[in-house]
Amino acid sequence: MKTIHLVLAATALTLAASCGQTSSRTEAFDGPAYLNPSLPVEQRVEDALSRMTTNEKIAVIHAQSKFSSAGVPRLGLPEVWCTDGPHGIRAEVLWDEWDQAGWTSDSCTAFPALTCLAASWDPELSLLYGKSIGEEARYRKKDVLLGPGVNIYRTPLNGRNFEYMGEDPYLASRMVVPYVKGVQSNNVAACVKHFALNNQETNRFTTDVKVDDRTLYEIYLPAFKAAVEEGGAWAIMGSYNLYDGQWNCHNDRLLNTILKGEWGFDGVVISDWGGVHITDEAVTNGLDLEFGSWTNGLTEGMSNAYDSYYLAKPYLDKIKAGEYGEDELNDKARRVLRLMFRTNMNPEHKMGKFTSPEHSEAARKIGAEGIVLLKNEGGILPLDGVKNVLVVGENAVKMMTVGGGSSSLKAKYEVSPLDGLKAALSPKGVNVSYERGYVGDASGSYNGVTTGQDLSEKRNASQLVADAVSAAKNADVVIFIGGLNKSDNQDAEGADRLQYGLPYGQDAVIEALANANPKLVVVNISGNAVAMPWVDSVPAIVQDWYIGSEAGNSLADVLTGKVNPSGKLPFTFPVAMEDGPIKTEAQYPGIPTGKNFAMFRFTEETYSEGIYVGYRWYDSKGIEPLFPFGYGLSYTSFEYGEPSANSLSMTKDGGITFTIPVTNTGKVAGAEVVQLYISDKESSIDRPEKELKGFGKIFLESGQTGIVKISIDADALSFFDAQKHEWVAENGEFNALFASSSRDVRKTLTFNLK
Ligand code: GLC
After folding, report:
1. Is the Cα dihedral 640, 127, 45, 258 positive or negative?
2. Distances, alpha carbon 34 to alpha carbons 40, 264, 417, in Å
């Protein structure tokens, strides 16, 4: 009997344990509720808040150092550590400086720029990206990753477009959600930035954007909305600029009405560094965590000025003076506590990984899948059967992970395009030689991180071209690798580009090379569109990106055909800037208003082009772009079969699932991105000719046919009615356009909304 009894007792315990009823588990924890890992976050938050003094609540809502905010030492609540940036984990800086702390354990994996990720049109890669970079953040004990950026590409001059996801709100929305989820799966908060309307660097602290509601809701908010509502972002960064007269780090409409009100955001609004200027607004307009303030503006300040921050002593004094109760303070502190319990106090205790082989593989794969083949005549690419390859251009050797502003990194390594090509071709007996071709920017340091490269050059410009041309004459193929770089007024934070064309006289070098050898490939490395006056004299053109540690390998994989390119442009390449929607100074860069505040002189900018941004504009004006949004070639070809739909009539709360067969009609395996644009054939208001509302990427072997399924609901048919302040889908006929680019519609299906 005894035995049976024991068995029964054991079974009972097991049973109880399995449904968590066992007393042992709750009894094992005898600390305060906020420290009990098995309690729900909200319960832990409330318990912690109830134990905090007013001073402690003030302490946790502003920085204590350049990248950290205080915890509550008395209660064992940890500091919160932030780190840049969207492409990799920034090197450690000194407590109160931008300069390097000189650590020897913080050289990271540099992942591709987000323009590259967007160009892959592959949400699964975005999840891989977020997971990988989140692992690096967690390993470096960072709780908030200051990225991704999803500001819309409004002008090719914006210095920070390389950090963002292109001109279309739907593409950016689909690509930001998995990134956020991937990062946060590591108990690290993604901090989606810069909210909102931060679409240029010129006058970034003082530009006051005026934009109509329809444009705001249709173009500039969707990616942030998706990041919050679908991605579950735990943090949002307010932007430096103003919207409708209020700075965005304490903008009542953006932060309280829209972000926290309409979208139900329960995370933390973090200021951009130095983006806070007014205590009263910071208290009431939705800011939760203040970073980077200088007590007297942005250009200078006291060191260790943290007690003088707008949400520090000035706020505490106002509470003591009875100007405020503690409701706003409790809401801010509650959100910061929630951030702690989601990150550094998350019971999952993820440990992350740093510079692992998997992260290098991820960077290389994302890089290769984001590269866009723009032109390939005469079958020059992929390189095959060539013996002598000449590589020309500074961007073939120049490190690009250093510079560009806050996204600058101290990478563990960076494979240059030249090194990547040599590694891929030399073992095959191919001779790879190099000519500089031109001198761009020989410098190589940012915030104390240096590339260590010596890019000095004694030859003058004409000698450099002459040497490249004479070498070109003897090559089987010439690969020019140029474009922009991370220097000021290029692809860099803090200043916009000053011209649409390539800098450093590259156009002349390209023309000279084209004359010297018709077998010429131009690889443009940039995060922005550029003019290509030589487009007709160059048989092969590749849009490459800032790909980071694996840059050279990703490019070599594509140029050698190891990877068949499948990237599609996330933004339009206009022939000329003048073709674009920006026609007046009021639209860009804005007009001084004469108004000022402290040291700030404001400029006002009106987005009068409205929703007609990117392909929406070029379609509306019938302007032929150089290369359209969504464009990208492959080493194979694809044929679209006849699309079908589960119904050609949908109701407002219904939906339609389209299916379309795609066949790889070429000789090699490859991937195609089928893009679904919706065109409203009859609408009461002006609408773009078409808008991207779905896409599917499909990998097919040569000769294989696959099926792409894309489902839509009424959201895909809607426009934002500013008067009603709601999305409206009007009954009537719509066209579903199945396209290989925004200018290459292969099939059309007409359906209606009842
Ligand atoms: C910078 C950038 C922001 C960055 C922050 C911290 O000025 O605008 O993207 O995360 O400050 O470096």
Report:
1. negative
2. 9, 24, 52
CB count within 10 Å of CB 725 equals 10
DSSP 8-state assignment for residue 254? I
Nearest CA to ligand 1 atom 9: 406
Would residue 410 be called left, alpha or beta, if left means φ above 0 and alpha means ψ between -120 and 50 degrees? beta
The tokens describing 424, both together, are 């891929």
- SS3 category, 28: helix
Separation between Cα atoms, residue 257 and residue 334, nearest integer Å: 19
Residues 110-133 have pLDDT tens digits of: 999 999 999 999 999 999 999 999
Q: Residue 607: exposed, middle, or buried by beta-carbon count in 10 A (0-12, 13-18, 19+)?
A: buried
User: E strand or H helix at 29, and its extent?
Assistant: none
User: What is the phi/psi pair of residue 155, to 5°?
Assistant: -140, 140
Candidates 185, 145, 189; CA nearest to 163 is 145
Q: How many other C-beta atoms lie within 10 A of the C-beta of residue 21?
A: 12
pLDDT score at 17: 43
At residue 417, the pLDDT reads 98
Whose tokens are 């599917």? That residue is 696
Residues 44 and 543: their CA atoms lie apart, in Å, by 50
pLDDT at 302: 75
Instruction: Give residue 598's pLDDT.
Output: 87
- Total Cβ atoms within 10 A of residue 64: 20
Place of tokens 């679908």: 230
- Residue 684's pLDDT is 96
In this prediction the pTM is 0.95
Provide the annotated active-site residues. 272
Q: What spacing in Å lies between the alpha carbon of 116 and ligand 1's midpoint?
A: 20
Say whether 250 sits in a helix, a strand or coil: helix
Give Cα 457 to chain centroid, integer Å. 35
Cβ neighbours around 570 below 10 Å, total: 30
**Coil, strand or helix: which one is 43?**
helix
Concatenated DSSP letters of 656-715: EEEEEEEEE-SSS-EEEEEEEEEEESS-SS---S-EEEEEEEEEE-TT-EEEEEEEEEGG
Rounded to whole angstroms, the Cα distance separating 407 from 415 reads: 18
Question: What pLDDT score does 298 carry?
Answer: 54
User: From CA 209, how far away is CA 647, in angstroms rounded?
Assistant: 43
Q: What is the pLDDT of residue 28?
A: 79
Q: Pairing between strand 591-597 and 600-606?
A: antiparallel
Closest CA to ligand 1's atom 6:
273
Ligand 1 pocket test, candidate residues 199, 406, 447, 493, most atoms within 8 A of CB: 406
Q: What angle do CA 605, 609, 610 make, to 5 degrees?
A: 95
- pLDDT of res. 27: 57
Q: What is the DSSP letter of 726?
A: E
* Pair 148, 88: CB distance under 8 Å: no
The reply to whether ligand 1 has any atom less than 6 angstroms from the CB of 193 is yes
Beta strand 719-721 pairing with 726-728: antiparallel
**CA-based Rg of the chain, rounded to a whole angstrom?**
27
pLDDT at 305: 86
pLDDT of residue 7: 42
CA 194 to ligand 1: nearest atom: 9
- Which ranges of the chain have pLDDT less than 70? 1-27, 295-301
Residue from 93, 318, 118 nearest 223 by CA: 118
Q: How far is the CA of 84 from the centre of ligand 1 (A)?
A: 7
Enumerate the β-bridge partners of residue 503.
none
What contacts 716, CB < 8 A, 6 or more positions away?
678, 693, 694
Q: Is 163 in the pocket of ligand 1 (CB under 6 A)?
A: no
CB of 605 closer than 6 A to ligand 1?
no
Nearest CA to ligand 1 atom 11: 273
